[in-house]
Specification:
About 60% of the residues lie in helices and about 5% in strands. It has helices at about 15-30, 40-50, 50-65, 80-105, 105-125, and strands at about 70, 75-80.
């Protein structure tokens, strides 16, 4: 198993987003198993012909999403992304439910707003 990332300089998405999306997809699909050690920021940047800051931005986004975890000088590893993502989604859903309740929306209006937001998010990405 190895990390496979290809950056298309002509793509609409910025390079950091291409790196982030490809690593996230491979981690979530199991192509990169939990505990897999990612290359260093500098190493991956050199391999892809990108600036180190570009790869660092992708790694930060992946860490923020719970896909990877950085263990100090030991490196960056694929985390148990499904569990972290599900916990974060549940927390966001609870916060949303509490907010729409305070706003006085009924269940149908709250669900319609979620459906609209999901439709927009999944067609945009």
């Amino acid at each position: 198993m190895s990390l496979k990332v290809v950056v298309d300089s002509h793509a609409a998405e910025p390079p950091y987003e291409q790196v982030r999306a490809q690593i996230a997809d491979q981690a979530r699909s199991g192509a990169l198993p939990v505990g897999y050690k990612l290359p260093t920021v500098r190493g991956l940047a050199e391999q892809l012909g990108l600036a180190a800051n570009t790869v660092a931005k992708a790694y930060r986004a992946l860490e923020s999403d719970g896909v990877v975890e950085t263990r100090g000088r030991n490196g960056t590893f694929v985390a148990a992304a499904g569990d972290a993502a599900e916990r974060e989604a549940a927390a966001a859903a609870m916060a949303y439910a509490q907010r729409v309740h305070r706003l006085g929306l009924d269940r149908a209006a709250a669900l319609a707003a979620v459906e609209d937001a999901l439709r927009a998010a999944f067609t945009a990405g």
